[in-house]
Amino acid sequence: MIRYLNYIYSLFFGIAVALFFGITYKYHLHYQEQFQLFVFDWDYFWDKAQIPGGFAGWLGRFFTQFYYISWLGAAIVAFLLVSLQLLVNSVSSRFKKNPMLYPLSFLPSIVFLIIFCDENYLLGGLMGLILVVLAACILFFFRNKLFRLAYTLIMIPLLYWMCGGVFILFIALALLAEILYFKQLNKIQYCILLGGSIVFALFSPWLANMILQYPAMRLYWGIEIHRVRLHIPTDLLWAWGAVLLIPLLYRFIPSIKKAFIVSMILFIAVMFTGGYYLKKSINLDKEAVMAYDYFVRTGDWDGAIAYGKDHKVNSFISLSSLNLSLAMKDRLTYDAFSFPQYGVAGLVPGFVRDYTSSLPLAELYYHLDVINVAQRFYFEAMEAIPDQQKSGRSLQRLAETNLINGQYEVASRYLSYLEKTIFYKKWAQETASYLYNEDKINAHPKWGKARKLMCPDERMMYSSDTASLFSILLNLTPENKMIFDYTAMIFLMDKNVTDFAQVIELGRRYYSEKLPVIYQEALLIWCQASSLDINQLSWRIDTDVLKRFNEYLGVLRTSKNPKNDLAAKYKNTYWYYNQFGVLPQN
User: Fold this and answer.
1) For position 463, what pLDDT does the model report?
2) Which residues have a Cβ under 8 Å from the Cβ of 542 and sit 6 or more positions away?
3) Within 10 Å of residue 40's Cβ, how many Cβ atoms?
4) How far apart are CA 473 and CA 373, in angstroms?
5) How far apart are CA 37 and CA 520, in angstroms?
6) Among 88, 242, 245, 564, which is 20 to 30 Å from 334 by CA?
7) Tens digit of pLDDT for each residue in 67-122?
8) How far apart are CA 341 and CA 290, in angstroms?
9) How many angstroms separate the CA atoms of 321 and 548, rounded?
10) What is the DSSP string of 64-98?
11) pLDDT per residue as tens digits for the range 450-496
């Protein structure tokens, strides 16, 4: 009976993990996938396999590529964690069958579940532990002690090179197996096993340190565990320690008559404890940032706007993605202040030289058809990835920007690389048909439009002065309506209605009949600030907008607490933002 209950435990855990990554943390999966690119190529395999832990990292990256589809990625993570749990139970049961303690075998998998809440931990650490525990399982099939001794001594350096520092765990499990389970070796053979283990454990990392140009500490741990190469992944010690402790608990804790009840209590306790620490590790703010980034990546503008209505915008990157989505739906100049705004950085976030902030900026300039600036940021984002991987997302965009620029040889190299993948192959093959085909590119709805609107000054580079940059862009590409709207909105976000009033005169090209409501609201603020009669404006102000403005001013004059009294009715107006909006401090 308890055996079937244990199967239910594993099934429950697998489903729970799949639901967690498929619903709560699915954008973390997309984030992981976009900063690595698995290619089916011998050189790619050898590049990974020649470093300690590289084979496990290669396997991890093979599975990570399936994160492209979030539910498939969630199912794979669940499968791997359940596989680890079953292997831990298999090894532990060799020391002594103790089904009552089956719930303890979930502990290493729960540790990894918690660890994976950090988006910089890679699957290589989990794959390395799975391979080590699998090697320990195989050890028990060697009944001949000499074969077993040879297998152990061969596997120690091999596992170090395949899996990294977790190979120490195999040594410990092999010694425990000989002492507690087989009990066949004589003193000389024990000395050979112990001495050989110590020699290989010390010699393997030392040899790697002599050959490879990596920090010595990382060579002891393994390279393909954490995206940041200088990070020491000590969190893994909890999982490693659990794998070593659980067989001892199986061995020395006696089973009791009410094993069924004890098993259920133990499972609930393990799951409750794991859930508690998992909840503490979840970072939903990061998940929201990744969600907005994913919507922009896939062009799901409606999805981003809907997400913004249901979730608080918690960063400039998220806000810029939301505002870009509004602009792509031609709603920025109507609905921007329906969402909290915090200055210019919410439109165009500041540049930080890393791999995360470069991508949102690259996407912004790409959709604004400022192709050369976008290309620079895509390239910098990929080159700044800490573990020096390639990015399928960036390579796609780099292929596109080079197609738009007519750099066909460069675009062809990017596409040939993408053709060696699973999820980018079809796109790359279709895109390759555009190479050297000017007419086909010009007819493309995005690339043809970008060619017509892109900045003619190829020497123009990115400037940290956002207002100046967009003013230059507007002068160079006056036919680009999105550039005009962004330029006008930049002045409004900075509460600079004077410069806005000057730039709005260029809007006749785009708004010959009627200005968007936000622009009308800003002009009324400017008229009031400059003591200009509204009838002197060259733009027509809607009657209902003027009426609401007078009502707004009436409440502002008479209210003792205008910020709160005006919020209910006017919080989504430019008037309210101009007076009460908080700008970031420099």
Assistant:
1) 61
2) 514, 517, 520
3) 12
4) 11
5) 48
6) 564
7) 999 999 999 999 999 999 999 999 999 999 988 999 999 999 999 999 999 999 99
8) 19
9) 30
10) HGGGGSHHHHHHHHHHHHHHHHHHHHHHHHHH---
11) 998 887 664 455 566 788 889 888 888 888 999 999 999 999 999 99
Burial of residue 395 (CB within 10 Å: 0-12, 13-18, 19+) is: buried
Query: Residue 418: which of 405, 408, 430 has the closest Cα?
Result: 430
- Is the model's pLDDT at 30 over the cut of 60? yes
Residues 296/325, Cβ–Cβ less than 8 Å: yes
**In the beta sheet, which residues pair with residue 121?**
226
Tokens of 469: 């940059």
Q: Which of 211, 255, 227 is closest to 97 using CA atoms?
A: 255
d(CA 21, CA 112): 13
Q: Tokens at residue 338, please?
A: 């329906």
pLDDT, tens digit, for every residue of 493-533? 999 999 999 999 888 888 877 899 999 999 999 998 887 87
Which of 300, 302, 327, 296 has its CA nearest to residue 481?
A: 327
> What are the pLDDT digits (tens) for 73-84?
999 999 999 999
> What are the b/e assignments for 336-368, b being 16+ CB within 10 Å?
bbebbbbbbbbbbbeeeeebbbbbbbbbbbbbb
AA letter at 60:
G
- Kindly report the pTM of this predicted structure: 0.92
* Other Cβ atoms closer than 10 A to 15: 14
What are the contacts of 414-422 at 24+ separation with CB within 8 A? 417/37, 417/39, 417/390, 418/37, 418/392, 420/39, 420/40, 420/41, 420/44, 421/37, 421/38, 421/39, 421/40, 421/65, 421/392, 422/38, 422/65
Pair of tokens at residue 218: 């990382």
Closest CA to 66 of 313, 548, 402, 392: 392
Structure tokens at 535: 């009838």
3-state helix, strand, coil in the chain (%, to 5): 70, 0, 30
Cβ atoms 329, 263 nearer than 8 A = no
pLDDT band at 356 (very low <50, low <70, confident <90, very high): confident
Residue with tokens 């010959």: 512
Structure tokens that stand for 432 in this block: 């390759």
